[in-house]
Sequence to fold (331 residues):
Amino acid sequence: MLVCSGILGAQVGAIGYMFKVFLGVKPIIGILIGCTIVILYSTFGGMSAVVATDVIQFCVLAICVPILLYFSVRAAGGMSSIIAATPRENFNIFNNYTPAGFISLFITLALGEALVPPYVQRLLMGNDLRTTKKATVLSGIISIPFFVITGLIGMAGAVYFAGTGTDMNSIMQSMIMTVAPIGIRGIIIAGMLSIVMSSADSFLNSASVGLVCDVIVPLCKKSRSDKGTLNLIKWVNLITGTLAVLIAIAIPNILDVLTFAYSFWSPLILIPLAAALLGIKTQPKAFYISMACGGAVMLIWTYMLGSPYGMDGSIAGVIANLLAFITFNKN
Fold:
């Protein structure tokens, strides 16, 4: 629930930036409006609403993001002008990071969303293993040009708004409001909101379902009907959404929110979960000890030692978790 709420907090934080640029309202108001919309349709529509909106949102963003790239590059004077005007240090992949810090960030992000509930939830919804494999590989292939396009839009925006004091956290939204023609602009705005909402509703739904079905119901002494469980999930959905809003308000930097959320996942759950999915029998004590070691090392490494060598505490926590799991998971 914590990792899903944290990632959801990053998503609704992005929605707040969008409302600030598109409508001129304060980010906190945008966060409240955006998260309320997601909470409403995911609470009353459930997984069916999440899947239906995801399909529509994917179609919209697949059309809109390339259109925005075209107008952005044209407004910035073409790719040759963008490359010439971009500071040389921006072509350094370690930009503002040491090599160790960059590798640490890469691994943190890679492990942070590995096997998180929304992804596993979708894998388990596949009709068969063959279909699931194809869908997973296809989604990875599609993501490559998508990330390249969004990166190029960011480069074009940095050149176009150079020296204007534009907030770099909302550079894409600013490009939409400036370079996209009226009419097309509205479609692109819908696409931008689709990018964020397609992830937000998934993490909200997964957090609520996981907490109720895996924690509350098993620990509850009296049995619950399906209807009672569903109503409980709806209430938890509201609470989870509220927690995400508080996280988004407390930690305004989106990347900081993500790394904060990841610290509750990979150092604690990832290794035992991967072992379970691979069919490795896990001793209860190994699970608890590895989780405790991973969490403790993550906290000590980050907050007491100050992340030595530029390595994020999540990585140190995962290593500690793995070593503890191997040591204590013996028959």
